[in-house]
Design brief:
Helices cover about 30% and strands about 10% of the residues. It is an alpha/beta fold. The chain has a domain of about 190 residues. The protein is globular, with a radius of gyration of 20 Å. The two termini are about 40 Å apart.
């Protein structure tokens, strides 16, 4: 069907309601049924069903040498599944599990934002340094995916106070109901050290066995891995101009800055009125109070290592 951005939509989940749907059926085959040879580059872009494609290539990855996988990572589409296509809700946690499996198999995974994926440097200059996606990032993603799916299913049953970031602190709801009146939102409520905190709805990833070819520069996430999520709200990454979901702080209105982990003292904040600045500061103080009193909680990695989530990791297949 015709999609939100004029692109294709699989199963209609990405359909633009302003356009009349033009559905049609296509024949699909498992990758393993059509490819049985070494692969230099596999490109996957199937509107949220990337994990289905890679799962259909299990034999290829186990028996052959697949050097590179470039894929669009459509977490935002999967997150809409519980409401519109419940039979595909499992794709929410299948996304991070897919990437975990690639890393366990020996791939280095990096994220390419739009500047790199759709423009970037000339080919002869090679790839720039890119943030790496690690197992530590993805453990947060997997934890969030499980909680988000439970919250989305509860919302469908008219139980909206379940899921990520639920319930939001009462003081924050009173100060800024437009932003804190809801919870279980992505990327707002994603763990700030997760991959999901690094993009608004989708992004592009490159996985390669040739680690030297991908120049990693730090790791993904709105926070650095060293930050204390119980005491800090704003990230200390190399890109302070971006907040949660890589949202550009300078373009956000004053009432969206704090919810998206942007600092009220950001330089572009001077564009706001004195009253708006005061409102942002008040919200900033309320967030810190909520953090320090345990009203906003984000599990750290040491907690998750004892939670059983690590046991979900797939085992490394036979590789040469």
């Amino acid at each position: 069907t015709k999609g939100i951005w004029g692109t294709a939509s699989v199963s209609g989940i990405n359909q633009n309601e302003m356009h009349k749907a033009q559905p049609f059926t296509v024949t699909s085959e498992r990758v393993d049924s059509v490819v049985d040879e070494d692969v230099l580059l596999m490109k996957v872009d199937v509107e949220g069903f990337e994990s289905v494609v890679l799962n259909s290539a299990a034999a290829l990855f186990s028996k052959r040498d697949v050097r590179n996988v470039v894929l669009e990572y459509n977490a935002g589409i999967a997150e809409r599944m519980p409401m519109w296509r419940p039979q595909f809700s499992h794709l929410i946690e299948a996304n991070p599990a897919m990437l975990m499996q690639l890393i366990v198999r020996g791939y280095r995974v990096v994220m390419m934002n739009d500047n790199v994926a759709k423009g970037g440097s000339p080919w002869h200059e090679g790839l720039p340094q890119l943030p790496e996606v690690t197992l530590d990032n993805l453990r947060y993603d997997l934890q969030d995916a499980i909680a988000f799916k439970a919250g989305a299913e509860a919302f469908r049953l008219d139980k909206p106070e379940a899921g990520l970031g639920c319930p939001t602190p009462p003081k924050l709801r009173a100060i800024n109901p437009g932003q804190w009146g809801g919870c279980n939102l992505m990327p707002e409520d994603a763990h700030p050290k997760s991959l999901r905190s690094s993009f608004p709805a989708n992004t592009n990833l490159w996985a390669s066995k040739d680690h030297a070819a991908l120049k990693a520069d730090g790791v993904v996430g709105a926070f650095t891995q060293e930050q204390d999520t119980s005491k800090e709200w704003v990230g200390r990454t190399r890109e302070p101009e971006f907040g949660q979901g890589r949202r550009a702080c300078q373009y956000l209105p004053h009432n969206m800055l704090v919810r998206n982990r942007c600092n009220c003292s950001y330089s572009a904040f001077q564009k706001h009125t004195k009253q708006q600045q005061q409102a942002c500061k008040l919200e900033e103080e309320a967030v810190m109070e909520a953090l320090l009193t345990g009203q906003l909680k984000y599990s750290d990695l040491s907690h998750m290592k004892g939670s059983g989530l690590v046991g979900i990791l797939p085992q490394k297949g036979a590789q040469k």
